[in-house]
Automatic annotation (TrEMBL):
InterPro entries: SegE-like_GIY-YIG (IPR045566). It holds the Pfam family SegE_GIY-YIG. This is Putative endonuclease SegE-like GIY-YIG domain-containing protein. It comes from the Bacteria. Residues 17-114 form the Putative endonuclease SegE-like GIY-YIG domain.
Length: 139
């Protein structure tokens, strides 16, 4: 796995320590100015399926694809050369989910057309009505 990443806010040689679950991020499309706020865990937890392994059948933890990750949102994942910023590090999965929701609400990302966020947590809430929507005109 390459140790290179393009996340602003983390040193190039950053190695996630145990006790830090992940980070909240902001990705911005350089061409349009559209943005997306999300969360990413540093860790992947999978069941070991290799029968010869001493941990066969057990859940194992390994570093996730965070270095190359762009987003689970298909539109955002297709952006070429976006600005990727780490907003904060989180110690637990709960803190990761809570902080993502907190930042989405405080930034009005669900209401602003500039943001490509349409979910709070894992529950789709749709788009805001026109009287709540905060419009944005791309660059």
């Amino acid at each position: 796995m390459s140790k290179h990443h393009d996340w602003e806010g983390l040193d190039q040689d950053y190695i996630p320590p145990k006790g830090i679950e992940g980070f909240i991020y902001l990705i911005e499309d350089r061409e349009t100015g559209y943005r997306y706020i999300g969360k990413k865990s540093f860790w992947s937890r999978v069941k070991d399926t290799k029968k010869s392994s001493p941990t066969f059948g057990k859940r194992i933890e390994k570093e996730s694809n965070w270095r190359a990750y762009q987003s689970s949102n298909k539109t955002v994942a297709d952006w070429d050369n976006p600005i990727k910023k780490v907003l904060c590090l989180c110690k637990t999965t709960f803190e990761l989910s809570y902080k993502e929701i907190e930042i989405l609400i405080k930034s009005d990302a669900i209401l602003k057309d500039r943001y490509k966020n349409y979910l709070i947590g894992r529950e789709p809430i749709g788009k805001p009505s026109s009287d709540l929507r905060i419009s944005y005109k791309p660059k």
